[in-house]
Amino acid sequence: MSKQAPAKPQTKVEPPLRDARLRVGVIAADPLRLLGFQALFDGHIVVHIVPIAANEPLQEPNADILLIAAQNTDQIFGLIRSIRRARSTAPMIVMATSEEPEFIERVLRVGAQGYLTTAAALGEIEDALASVYEGGQWTPSKAQHTAIGETPAPDSMARPEAFTTRERQVMMLLMAGQSNREIALALRIEERTVKSHVARLLKKMGVRNRTALTMQVIARGLVGRRLDS
Description:
This protein is an alpha/beta fold. Helix content is 41%, strand content 12%.
């Protein structure tokens, strides 16, 4: 009677980390405008542009946030309403040429969470995406307030030595898209301790939410540093 070969031990396959990038669904009637957004965010570690056809704006179910780049301001309100009817929870930013406060207020009343002018620079677009994704609102006036110092002042200018080893570990897991609970499990600490670390990181980086924190970490070149140094 032949002996049965011993079973080979199964190799545990770790699930891949979630993609931490924001999937920004861009609705633009002008193909050149869409190409402009794709070029602007080409290689961006935090933002990934998802083209959405202007006549079928709801065909991309995985977009985290919608950005409407409008040429005809008269059509904006009907488009916002149609999106709201189909996806009532979809965060939305409108980008148009008008700088009139009355027009911007109407855009927000109809259902958008943010407004940008077509002259907005990359940094302002990033701030708007971060703010709206985290549940806030964004208008050009908020960008002006940010510029004159209404955001928290960075603690110690966020130098590398300003972070503890544990804060750097939490930071890297945040960059990988991990939730507070997942970070707590990975580091074998309490979830409330993770929240305390995140709060200190927000203060040190001078930002108000996790998305903006991720963008600042990348912008200041802090990503990729050794965690045990």
